[in-house]
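Colleagues,

Please find the record for the two-part complex below.
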Amino acid sequence: MRAAPSPEEVRRNNLGSLLQYVHLHGATSRAELTARLGLNRSTIGALTADLITAGLVSEAVPRERGRAGRPSLVVSPEPAVHAYALSIEVDRLRAARIGLGGRILDRRETERPPGMPVLDTVQPLAGLVLQMRHAVTGDARSVGTGVAVVGRARQTDGRVRLAPNPAAGKDPAGAAFRAALGGALGVAGRLTVGNHADVSALVEHSRGVAVGCDNIVYLHGDVGVGAGIIAAGRRVAGHGGYGGEVGHMVVNPYGRRCSCGSRGCWETEIGEYALLQHAGRGGETGRAAVLGVVNAAMRGDRQAQFAVRQVGEWIGFGVGNLANIFNPEAVIFGGTLRDVYLAAAAQIRSRLNAIALPAAREHLRMRTPGLGNDAALIGAAELAFAHLLEDPLLNACF
Amino acid sequence: MRAAPSPEEVRRNNLGSLLQYVHLHGATSRAELTARLGLNRSTIGALTADLITAGLVSEAVPRERGRAGRPSLVVSPEPAVHAYALSIEVDRLRAARIGLGGRILDRRETERPPGMPVLDTVQPLAGLVLQMRHAVTGDARSVGTGVAVVGRARQTDGRVRLAPNPAAGKDPAGAAFRAALGGALGVAGRLTVGNHADVSALVEHSRGVAVGCDNIVYLHGDVGVGAGIIAAGRRVAGHGGYGGEVGHMVVNPYGRRCSCGSRGCWETEIGEYALLQHAGRGGETGRAAVLGVVNAAMRGDRQAQFAVRQVGEWIGFGVGNLANIFNPEAVIFGGTLRDVYLAAAAQIRSRLNAIALPAAREHLRMRTPGLGNDAALIGAAELAFAHLLEDPLLNACF
């Protein structure tokens, strides 16, 4: 703490708290803000006035009035203040414009051809942003761009290693990507890059199914498997930002070779490839193919059921290990793991129960993402909003 | 932040920072405190005076004088202020009296007969504390007792499940243990219980080999294996305090039955039992037996070498998994794993390199505990000192 913070520091901090509150909870009455933030009414009034002047919130008389007396004014985040969110996935590139408050105002998508290097995604992504920028009307203002990228540590399969924190280690490919995208976006400005599973975990924690849970594991599945992990309320990033590579936890020492060079990694047993192989559809790939197997299993197709069962066993196995390590309250299944989870939930739970210690799993809930496929986009936008929420006045001049 | 902290809050906070600094770093000159704590000289003088009045530090003219001029007074933690530390291990019970500053002033030890329930350790532990209390002379004051206990989640092998935080979940055995020990200790007062590996991790982080590392895995091995994990500078405790059970991460789905009911848990491959079995010494148990195998391997005994190699392989395997999950800077081998690590370091590293992604392991250092076998005792004392360091004046009246 050292010296006491100055009144100006306290004010800026409170401005951030108020803006963060309405950003997460939407329109909120002054009365509720007073209660939630533990500040008195006149302070809330002054802070709101400052944020209105900065164009970050608006204030209105509520439409519904539940009781007599002068109604408490309602403070709303200003969606004209927005961020661009990009999601780089194995087989598609997505972009959205997201307003303060977290609503998606516009979205675009394009295919990512198999094996396209991350650096080559810069032009199509910039194109999507340009389209959205042309569609913006009025005095909308962008705070910057957040990027969620699938995969960070696998160089063997064409995926670029992207350190979330560029200062954390040598990461020439990540630096080149950042420089190229920053150049292509021009005035869309400040760029923040995060891992797909990490930003999904954070946003499910702040406004999804894991609100109030301080220990969660968010699993994203596609060809590979990665995790965004929150322990004691903080992201488990690791020393260089490469934590969460649960897809390379070896579960089967006698299993298949993995793209990383090891053998029997979790993703070789629960990734798309394993499911499609077990289903006798080894030639297919991608989200649609996975859904095809899951739907066939639901309809009674024996081989598809076998495939879902096999993969479900190994999902429960790995989740059991993670439960013993993290004792989490929630495990969330995203990407194609969502669909497999829905088809194999009972089996996953049964295997999990056999692997995990009772104490480690007794409060564990399994969930699908509350924000669905938008978790990564909204999470990417949060990366861009973070600067603004930390110090609204310093960052309002964008 | 809400309202600005009062001058009194700032002062108490600074008192805690100063006391914490000399507690961790030992005798420190006022000049260094001024620099390290970012406070001015007169504030340091006033804070020191307050802590002297409270009997928590003493001040003296330094013995050696490196340069001319008036020497800066040196502030030292007052070892008359002490904590009792208890360590409940598989085959022994240890107790120590530890002064503010972390020095062990007295220590006692007794055997724990095989299978003795945790509740039955209360009387012998209280006996050890009583012996030490009788040996105390002068105006020494105790801040309370910290307890490090091996194992938390295994009920199958006679180990009591002890939640570090009693409010976190139902834990009748832990509550009974706490009540019994509290009663037996009487005036030794305030009791704080933690897991053996957790407190060892924290103390290696604050004053051992992992100072400055924010992502560490401390492994404690005996019959079983547990971990104290720090990620992003915080302990990975999990929802109910049962995180870190890495010994029950299944590494070999076709392996041996584990005491937990599962099969192929890491501890079935790297615990004492596995090592002694491989060495053809299945009838032996305990620390001495493990050392016997390690020493025999060093002397060239083929079967002992085979045993160390087998176990080393599986240690590297599991550490590789943990590296992919946590991307830690340091992995520390405590308990009997320390000895096995020293005999098999090269092999462990080689297997780890095969399992862990390059990005996840490139800065990973493997270490033995800087505080040796005393890590758990000093860590237990830290549990007892924590209250005092948080608010020295509030807690100085003990």
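Chain B touches chain A through 69 residues (CB under 8 Å).

Comments are welcome before we finalize the supplementary table.
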